[in-house]
Design a protein that fits this description.
The chain has 70 residues and is mainly α. It has one domain (17-67). It is built from 4 helices and no strands. The protein has helices at residues 3-8, 19-34, 42-50, 57-67.
């Protein structure tokens, strides 16, 4: 495991979010703004998250589940 992969999975002391979760939430918020508050399809979110980090579909789904995103 590379050092950046280790850091991606360690929760931050400020709020308990990992780097991956923080990126997912940021991209989700920005995409919702672009869509005027409408729901964001998971496939669209996944594509946009991939622009920031390399993550599998399963990892994204796990992050969304941990965050309670429906």
């Amino acid at each position: 495991m590379c050092p950046h992969e280790i850091l991606d999975n360690i929760p931050d002391v400020r709020d308990g979010l990992t780097r991956i979760e923080r990126i997912v939430l940021y991209v989700l918020r920005e995409t919702q703004r672009e869509r005027n508050g409408r729901a964001v399809p998971t496939a669209m979110l996944y594509g946009r998250v991939l622009e920031h980090i390399t993550i599998s579909e399963d990892e994204l789904q796990s992050s969304l589940d941990r965050l309670g995103v429906k």
